[in-house]
Amino acid sequence: MWPDIPYQPWRDTCTALHLYTQIVGKYRLARTPWVNHSWHATLYVNGRGLTTGLVPDGPGGVEIAFDLIDHAVVGCATDGRSGRFALGPTTVAGFHTRFMELLAWLGATPWLDGRPNEVPDPVPFAEDRIERPYDADAVRRFFGALVAVDGVLKRFRTGYLGKVSPVHLFWGSFDLAVTRFSGAAAPLHPGGIPALPDDVTREAYSHEVSSAGFWPGGGMVEYPAFYSYAYPAPEGFAEARVEPEDARFNRELGEFLLPYDSVRRAVDPEATLMAFLESTYRAAAGLGGWERARLECALGEPRRPRSL
Length: 308
Known about the structure:
By secondary structure, the chain is α+β, with helices and mostly antiparallel strands. It is built from seven helices and eleven strands.
């Protein structure tokens, strides 16, 4: 649990894996009816890596999974067909071709939007022929981190009676996230996220949110980190006192950041991460005037019905 995942040694593999998840995620997006805030497009942590869940396509349903233990992409159809191909050094174009072949083998629809989202200077998948490495050990450790984080985010999710998202991985920004909603409408989002249609962004932020999650590094944050932000950010949010001490507000990003290593090295990593999640949420909800008494509840416990 809580493995060491420094970003720099595996950044090229991480970039490649990010683009591969975009290809698979865009297949789910293309075949699944729209769900609020793009929840229909995400991936989920499972027992061996990441999965689309069941996509309504082909013979009734198709599931695509990244096996990050044995390093393969695995597809299963509801009529019993299955197939797989190995994850390893390749190009994005090569991965795209093999994935289209896998979809056809499963009786699925081998089509998806061929352009990456939320990355600078996006190159269409089928035209990206840069050779990409594949560090299997780093990928396996990243999966271990996802498992650890997923468990804490799911427990944090239970302490809320209002609308709350699943814990899911957004392949656009490559982050594992959970989002709480106040129930109130939000001002129109300005958009402007690179390579993402503004109408998608505006639908995602149609209502007030407090969102938190984890990403392995990249962009302006060259280390694995947890984040928490509010939209719209209430007055005084950036100055709020949050836990633990290593958490800082990044004004360029407009969100609180906590290095993954601060959690990994803590005496109680789960409690440290939970303190970050709870304190940043309280800052957003308290300063934002959310109806907290109506929305909040005790964290869930196994086999214990919630008290009324």
